[in-house]
Amino acid sequence: MSVRPPVLVDIKFNPEGVARVLKTAFADRGSINLADPVDRARDLRAVEYALLWKPDADLFSRAPNLKVIFSGGAGVDHIIGMAGLPDIPIVRFVDRSLTTRMSEWVVMQCLMHLRGQYAHDIKQRRREWAKLIAPEAAEVTVGVMGLGILGQDAVAKLKVMGFNVIGWSRTRKAIDGVETFDAGELDRFLAKTDILVGLLPLTPETTGFYDSGLFKKLRRDGALGQPVFINAGRGKSQIEADIVSAVREGTLGGASLDVFEVEPLATDSPLWEMENVFITPHDAAVSEENALFRHVEMQIARIERGEPLQFVIDRAAGY
Ligand code: NAP
Ligand code: GLV
Known about the structure:
With 319 residues, this protein is an alpha/beta fold. Helices cover 29% and strands 15% of the residues. The chain is built from 10 helices and 12 strands.
């Protein structure tokens, strides 16, 4: 019986969780965990499958016989553009646990802006009993940018909460009860949007995309008074200096940001202390290790059964 090469794991998050779950994952072939000092020095030439999140720069020269790359997350921008990236399939992480987490975060942020949570927090600290009368969700239009796996789930859950939801994507999608727009209809989409939710991947087209020009095109006479920007896609899609000035000048009434141009967000960023700006540390939808390793095991089993891989990215589109 031929011995299967181990799976290479180079994941730069939650090393304890990764090490714990790796004890039982890939039982039929074993693994090499580059976060483990003993494994770090191992010969990677026989490795065929690699599970990566922000891998070492020399990884592809050390592992020249890879057949498939698995991303440790839904996004692949941490791999695309790396020197020596081989022309092999890149599979992204798609899983209910990740999708559900993202929708929880998106719905929570939309509700916090709808119900004036920032103002409530201030009143609470002052021990003030002050009622705030919020509009109904149905009076507010949430515009979701990116109608992929995460965007479509968020749309469905926002609709359950009663929001009027519209969506925008590169190619038009048909979603029951949701007005959708394609890339050429950006301005029409923005003009109808009170709360903008960014769930776009980072590509050359989406780099620096959320800027002051875009914020000025959002609807200004909606039930919230001023539009709100929410982003959990990628930080390099936003111009943070423009978010700061848009909130200061009132072009935006607030923001919720999970991702940043540079992470971690610098301690001296003005965003930390801005009114009605909610900051989370890129944990809107973390990859849970059990689910992640199970997904990779399932994809490897598909290859070995001669079935096509799922969730392979389009290299030309970059996502
Ligand atoms: P996906 O299924 O690939 O969907 C991407 C969506 O974006 C698609 O609807 C696509 O349009 C649209 N799109 C891409 N480029 C576009 C462009 N230039 N103009 C207009 N629309 C464009 O991805 P996903 O699984 O939903 O994930 C989206 C992103 O979320 C990931 O790439 C990652 O960056 C981010 N993410 C963040 C976290 C977090 O914790 N903050 C967690 C997971 C993922 P088409 O439908 O026409 O292809
Ligand atoms: C997280 O940011 C992911 O891409 O899964």
